[in-house]
Write a structure and sequence with these properties.
The protein contains 10 helices and 8 strands. With 286 residues, it is α/β, with parallel strands linked by helices. It has a single domain (11-284), classed as Alpha/Beta hydrolase fold, catalytic domain (Rossmann fold, 3-Layer(aba) Sandwich), CATH 3.40.50. Helix 4 (117-134) packs across helix 5. It starts with 10 loop residues before the first helix and ends with a helix.
Amino acid sequence: MTPLYRDFTEQAQIDAQYNPSLGLADPAGELAHYRAQAAAARDRLSARLNLPYGPTRAETLDIFPAAQPGAPVFVFLHGGYWRALSSKDFSGVALGLQPRGITTVVVDYALCPRVRLDEIVRQCRAALAWVLRHIAEHGGDPARVAVGGHSAGGHLGAMALLTPWAEDYGLPQDPLAGALLVSGLYDLAPLRWSYLQPVIQLDEALVQRQSPLLNLRACRTPLQLVWGGAESAEFERQSRAFLAGWQAAGNAGSARALPGAHHFSAIHGFESPEGDLARQVADFFR
């Protein structure tokens, strides 16, 4: 039988690797955790919500400013496989960063199938350009902006690194101080054969355009890739393959598993100032 992708010959095999809810006792509880942490962040922290960065209603972002002016900035791109969730589900990322003196920006974007993945990537790039140009007005330091993302947001963060910033936006070619990508998707090809395909509607040309692994370039931004140690083998392989390609392009990067973490808990380390992911972000700005 001809493989669909690598050694996978059936959709069920691909779904078993790429559906992170399979095998979890309470997937709904994982999303409830995100939302509870997000509500706590909006209740306890100063916030400027729903600031427009583009012309459509979907293009907004939320800023959780640090107490001191001129703070470093972390821009978070949320997951949901490009077809679910919103910035409001991930305000909790700021809980571990604001006490460390880091301004947090959580980006919202339109979702599939209303828009295609090309448009989501464009929106996230536009959001980062907005931050680089305007964050000083909100107490942030535009010279110290890092990007991060989880799952689909990891993919979007990788595409942000590969943006032709100078050519398309008139910004420095590598304007970001660091990137922390968690359990990302860097080769989109297997998802064409997955349960997601009816909604995300990939074709071969889109896979080629929007797979970070297929669009690598030289980049001076340091990259940290992480994934949950309890995740499927494919999430680890995706990160390791992207790191290998990133380093082959002459770029600095590293990768590590988070012991015991599954796909959803992998980003809990943002929720406390002592969390490992909050510490990693702070390290970008030393």
